[in-house]
Amino acid sequence: MSSFDTILVANRGEIALRVMRTARAMGLACVAVYTDADAASPHAAFADASIRIGEGPVADSYLSIDKIIAAAREAGAEAVHPGYGFLSENAEFARACAAAGLVFIGPSAEAIALMGNKAAAKRKMNAAGVPCIPGYESADQAADVLAAEADRIGFPVMIKAAAGGGGKGMRLVQRPADFSAALQLARSEALAAFGSDEVILEKALTRPRHVEVQVFGDADGTVIHLGERDCSIQRRHQKVVEEAPSPAVDAALRARMGAAAVKAAQAIGYQGAGTVEFLLDQDGAFYFLEMNTRLQVEHPVTEMVTGLDLVEMQIRVARGEPLGLAQDDVRLEGHAIEVRLYAEDAEQGFLPQAGRIAEWQPPSGDGIRVDGGIAAGQEVSAFYDPLLAKLIAHGRTREEARQRLVAALQDCVLFGLACNRDFLLEVLLHPEFAAADAATDFIARHFPNGLEAPLTSREMAVAAALIHRAEQQRCAAAAGGVAPELLGWSGQGILRSFLRLECNGETCSLQVCEEPGQLRVTCGKRQHSVTEEGGGLRVDGVRADLKSWRLEGDTLQVAVAARIFTLTRQRASAGAAPAGQVGQVVAPMHGVLKEVCVAEGDRVAAGSRLAVVEAMKMQHEVRAGAAGIVASVAVRPGVQVQAGQLLLEVSPQETDGA
Predict the structure, then answer these.
(1) Which CATH superfamily is domain 209-446 in?
(2) What is the pLDDT of residue 639?
(3) CATH code, residues 134-203
(4) Which CATH class is domain 457-472+494-569?
(5) CA separation for the pair 536, 259 (Å, rounded)
(6) Predicted pLDDT at 488
(7) pLDDT tens, 53-87?
(8) Rounded CA gap, 440 and 10, in Å?
């Protein structure tokens, strides 16, 4: 048995808070680590002690084994919980903890090393009789060998980083002609994320479901499973929506998948929490995908349907205690669905966002749980994963859980930077998801360009009324002793004002007329009547369901039930040059410029790769909008760039002719 009273959580954000809340409830002291970028974060404030481990970049902070071990020693911690991501599946970290006399709250270093390498894991699972997808996982990593193996397997194929997961270092390749470029990107991303550019190849299945099984093992050799989760709603192989149990799994299939997952864990003598991931084909066949040797982001849905605290179970197993739970003791009650709130702009191709959170209003209600790690005033850094919070709903049925989660998202407000809240609503409300028919291609088929939802004239009317109200309040404050009935008085009858509002590059002109008891807002050919009632707004007699709004300078942010949108007021005196001038190629987001693919004087075709920007652990290609000649390169690889910063200039392609 291992005894400890103080736990250092080697992570940040919502998972650090999640772990510490359970640890504190168990009577344990909690130590947080933080960087300069996270100095004001809730997880650092919640802990009993907080240790600074660096400035911001993960390589010198959350991924530094030496700094984490030193922080644990400084704080007098006896155990380390790795959370997920970062060092959670790093066998060297587990070994370093043991060497320092620290209890690592997770599986053995040997299990992490074996299952952390996808190639070795597939070989082990094949030997154990666990069904696996056809592919290539050998040591020869020559590009021509990999290309030949891809041809043998047959396109489409999946390239995957052998040393990690989470969608990083992963590329789907549809045609042989695209293989070389995809391999280069996958290797570069894998090396940056996991320190290894080794990859494996797998046959890409058509419209499978991603179903994973939660397993738990103890020191006595007992291994059980806690049911499955369906994680089919993914974008770029990163999960967006998860649920338990899977709507595609019946009791018989659950028993078979559960038995296969337990067999996989037993084959490596697994202890602690782990997840065996499968692809479920349309014919009911399932194939081993990988094993995550840690707590999963989506573990709350399992907790909601089993009533178990997985972090508490992790801690007890790490102490050497038996599970105290047999397979027949596991009962699944109701249904749970989780969505991940990301700092990304779904209306701009899911570009990662960084900046200050101006307002954060998490939802509440029956069956609602929020696992968050953010607060108003906090800076969201480009150094880390874009996950802000997780919203989870539980209900007696899947439909009740879905409806509760829809209502929770409609009550959720985040201002200051773009998030994917509206996109998540669209997913949950989509008929295919509601019918439980969605597979892993759901987002690619239905939202190939992200969220395409231009503002309605009703929403523009709400914005115009809010700006008009703010102007009235400003004038009243500046007017001193002027009687309210004289403010805004006009000798020409109805007083009209004009607004020009810009949203996502589109400008709209509105006219606002003050009439008795209402505002008459004209937007193009549409007119709307806006009235106030009980502090809220009604548009044409229908409640606007306004959740919150915020006006800072000329920028207005509005949250209604259906969406959160940002508008910028365009004033006549504004003389800024238009964005995206011809020939200028700018950074699409905050991040690190990983690669410049061209040099001055190079000729480029439309769609050519010009540069690669890494933001929030993912690499994003910057491509030429038209053919031309590279006139200048303004930045060098390795530097931090800001959204909108000039990267290079491309002169228009010269044409022949008299």
Answers:
(1) ATP-grasp fold, B domain (3.30.470.20)
(2) 84
(3) 3.30.1490.20
(4) alpha beta
(5) 55
(6) 53
(7) 999 899 999 999 999 999 999 999 999 999 999 99
(8) 31
